[in-house]
Design brief:
InterPro entries: CamS (IPR011426). The protein is of the alpha+beta class. The protein contains 9 helices and 17 strands. The protein has 2 domains: about 210 residues, sex pheromone staph- cam373 precursor domain (sex pheromone staph- cam373 precursor fold, Roll), CATH 3.10.570.10; about 110 residues, GMP Synthetase, Chain A, domain 3 (2-Layer Sandwich). The chain has a 6-stranded mixed beta sheet with strand order 4-5-6-9-10-11, with helices on both faces. It has a 6-stranded mixed beta sheet with strand order 12-13-14-15-16-17, with helices on one face.
Length: about 375
């Protein structure tokens, strides 16, 4: 057992420590109960936020990085896919591991070497633990790849920790995000090609991968800690092609309780960029609303203003909108005026939807932030 400290995670716009979201702050209600008798264990209560982030484990005063940290970036996957794989998995985990009862820690039970071996193709002699299929038949490497595409793209592990009265912690739950190709892209001798992966194949193979990985973890692969009696949640994630403007999405989640058969549920989730042909076709009313919002913002200045939105849908309803605004300005007063105007427009157009707006200069530097949540006044921060 190891001694730990606890750090409250919070949204960047809320670092001042004020309760911008209203209501009375109740530290005991928002933080897992731990013993105060042990001076080596400290708790910084989470600042209230709509996301209800977990408090995070510190070891010897430092954040605990997972062993597979950054592995997806090393493989060349898009930042937007990796960000939502991580944050979306944490959201899914909250259904089983209540943030009031558990602490968050990046995965420590799977090593980078193990995950790498699982992602590589199966080979009876060279890589018997590989989960992707062996190379297919064909007259050349391109044809062989196309006839047997990879399906599993990445494995993300998150741990949810319990702390006892003595201040020792152990894994109380594990969440796994299995990222699955929607399109397998490959190259050989300078020639590139790709193979689309059907949703039915993603689901079938993803559930098979999940059962295999859970069994291996319960049998003790890489870990000194016994996970045989630890509940494990596995979420299946559809990774988008590298040139896609949208992030991937989760489509199925399975709960593996010790000694029980897994329970699977579907997730209806989607990411959409505004403006885009897909938005016009699949979400016409929302596309028209964003176009009007964008037109109003662009009309505020004579200078060109770029406005792009990224929405998340759950069960075909928009549940979150992020907007990036790029401006060319002469003075900070212009930034202040535009930020105030955008805050008012957000409240008018998206009364019932949480919206975050990042306003940046053409150079890329962040100039101001607008954060809006229904039934609360918009929060504005100007970066000096």
């Amino acid at each position: 057992m190891k001694r730990v400290g606890i750090l409250g995670l919070a949204s960047a716009v809320l670092l001042s420590g004020c309760n911008f979201f209203g209501g009375e702050e109740d530290d005991e209600a928002n933080t897992p109960d731990v013993s105060e008798a042990d001076d080596s264990l400290t708790v910084v209560p989470s600042i209230p936020s709509e996301e209800n982030y977990y408090a995070s484990v510190l070891q010897d005063g430092a954040y605990v990085h997972g062993q597979t940290r950054g592995y997806g970036l090393d493989l060349g996957y898009s930042r937007k896919d990796l960000d939502w794989l991580e944050l979306g998995l944490e959201d899914i985990a909250k259904e089983r591991f209540d943030p009031n009862d558990y602490f968050f820690q990046e995965g420590t039970h799977l090593s980078r070497e193990t995950v790498k071996s699982w992602l590589l193709r199966y080979d009876e002699e060279e890589n018997p633990n590989g989960l992707n299929p062996s190379l297919g038949d064909g007259d050349d490497p391109i044809e062989q790849e196309k006839n047997s595409p990879w399906v599993l793209a990445n494995v993300l592990e998150q741990n949810y920790m319990n702390v006892n009265d003595e201040g020792d912690y152990s894994t109380g739950g594990v969440a796994l995000g299995l990222s699955l190709y929607s399109e397998y892209e490959f190259s050989h001798d300078g020639k590139s090609d790709s193979v689309p992966i059907k949703a039915a194949v993603q689901e079938e193979k993803g559930m098979e991968f999940a059962e295999t990985i859970v069994n291996r973890m319960r049998e003790g692969v890489d870990s000194e800690e016994d996970l045989s009696d630890v509940p494990i949640v596995v979420a299946l994630f559809s990774q988008q092609p590298k040139d896609s403007v949208n992030a991937g999405h989760f489509f199925k989640v399975g709960t593996f309780e010790p000694g029980e058969n897994p329970h699977w549920e579907n997730i209806n989730q989607e990411h959409v960029q505004f403006p885009s042909p897909a938005a016009n076709e699949d979400h016409r009313d929302d596309a028209d609303r964003f176009t009007q919002f964008r037109t109003d913002v662009q009309a505020f200045f004579s200078n060109n203003i770029g406005v792009v939105g990224r929405a998340r849908y759950e069960d075909n309803q928009m549940v979150k909108l992020n907007v990036d605004v790029n401006i060319q300005y002469k003075g900070k007063a212009e930034v202040v005026a535009l930020t105030q105007y955008i805050a008012g427009q957000v409240e008018e157009y998206y009364e019932n939807i949480p919206v975050d707006v990042n306003i940046s200069a053409l150079s890329g530097s962040l100039e101001s932030i607008v954060s809006y949540h229904p039934d609360r006044e918009p929060f504005i921060h100007i970066i000096n």
